Amino acid sequence: MQINAIILQPKKPFIWTSGWKSPIYCDNRKILSYPEIRNNIRQNLSAIALNHFKGANIIAGVATAGIPHGVLVAEEIGAPFIYVRDKAKNHGKKNQIEGYYNIGDSVILIEDLISSGKSSIAAAEALITKGLNIKGIISIFNYGFNHAKNSFKKSKIEYISLCDYDTLLKQAIDSQYIEKNDLEILKDWRKNPSIWKS
């Protein structure tokens, strides 16, 4: 919130690519422009990679927003880095996964944020298809949608986020970034974001 990477506008919602109306906009790419915050994110993502998902020997980023943060984590812990596109290129070597890896390698996937979980799970499945072992997914932010939780549970892929929607709302109230009467609007949106009306 300090750098407006997250903006809360309950009374003036954004429109997401999906067409959903949303009282929140999350742009973690902004983190890269602020060294102190970028370093903090890098260190905390790396701590989860080292302490929770032990035994991984490759860091992967989800294209495109997960790539820079994934590279930072790989650099911090001294691991190789690869990245995963949403689909294979239709030219050149037609790769979906870029970088060097071996069948059987263990991978931690870095994502900037998790909303529906669809792109994260698809990236993990692309890696699994190539014979890689997914230790887990780490993201900077997570909306905590129920359908995302169910999708991860069904796919049997573990994920951890540095921050989630509930923590964000608490901080937004504590820092007076939003008013208390905005809180119900923001909570109501998360219950069913695809049909939410401001």
The second-level CATH architecture is 3-Layer(aba) Sandwich
Give the fraction of residues assigned to helices.
25-40%
How are the strands ordered across the major sheet? 7-6-5-8-9-10
- Our count of domains comes out at 1
Number of strands: 10
Pattern of helices and strands: EEEEHEHEEEHEHEHH
- What radius of gyration results from the CA coordinates? 17 Å
- What's the CATH topology label? Rossmann fold
| Percent in strands | 15-25%
- Alpha-beta classification: alpha/beta
Q: Which stretches of 5+ consecutive residues score pLDDT under 50?
A: none
The main pleated sheet reads as: 6 strands, mixed
Dominant shape = globular
Span of the ends, CA to CA: 22 Å
Mean pLDDT: 94
CATH class: Alpha Beta
Oligomer: single chain
Number of helices: 6
Account of the protein in words:
This protein has 198 residues and is an alpha/beta fold. It has one domain: Rossmann fold, CATH 3.40.50.2020. It has 6 helices and 10 strands; from the N terminus they run E-E-E-E-H-E-H-E-E-E-H-E-H-E-H-H. It has a 6-stranded mixed beta sheet. The protein has a two-stranded antiparallel ribbon with strand order 1-4. Helix 1 packs across helix 2. The longest helix has 17 residues. It is globular, with a radius of gyration of 17 Å. The mean pLDDT is 94.
Topology:
Layout: E1 6-8, E2 14-15, E3 21-22, E4 24-26, H1 35-51, E5 58-62, H2 66-77, E6 81-84, E7 97-98, E8 106-114, H3 118-129, E9 133-142, H4 146-155, E10 159-164, H5 165-174, H6 180-191
Parallel strand pairs: 5-6, 5-8, 8-9, 9-10
Antiparallel strand pairs: 1-4, 2-3, 6-7
